[in-house]
Design goal:
Largest sheet: 5 strands, mixed
CATH topology: Cathepsin D, subunit A, domain 1
Radius of gyration: 14 Å
Strand order of the largest sheet: 2-3-4-1-5
Strand content: 35-45%
Shape: globular
CATH superfamily: Acid Proteases
Order of helices and strands: EHEEEEHEE
CATH class: Mainly Beta
Number of helices: 2
Number of strands: 7
CATH architecture: Beta Barrel
Number of domains: 1
Structural class: mainly beta
Helix content: 10-25%
């Protein structure tokens, strides 16, 4: 999900575990706050993250339980969208 109101990019711990990403001793754990309350997450720098034609190398993501009452694998936040220079056209619901 794209969320321009989310400062960070977060993925479900279950989803990233399937890709082989695990919490390690050196990963930083912190609490984030949003509309739904607070959640503990850990930060991890990944080699790359791509969304369509947009791609960033050495990008920091947050990983948490994402227990929001519905199934979601991740939220791409403004930190990613800003760094790739994404433009969102609300009239056509396109991102470029």
């Amino acid at each position: 999900m794209l969320d321009t109101g989310s400062a960070g990019t977060i993925f479900s711990a279950d989803s990233v575990l399937e890709m082989g990403l695990q919490c390690k001793f050196q990963d930083v754990v912190h609490r984030i706050r949003g509309v739904g309350g607070t959640e503990f997450v850990y930060s991890k720098c990944i080699d790359s993250l791509s969304l369509g034609k947009f791609e960033l190398q050495d990008f920091e993501i947050e990983i948490g339980t994402m227990d929001y009452g519905f199934v979601i694998d991740g939220i791409v936040g403004i930190n990613f969208l800003h760094r790739v220079g994404a433009c969102i056209d609300l009239a056509t619901l396109e991102i470029y």
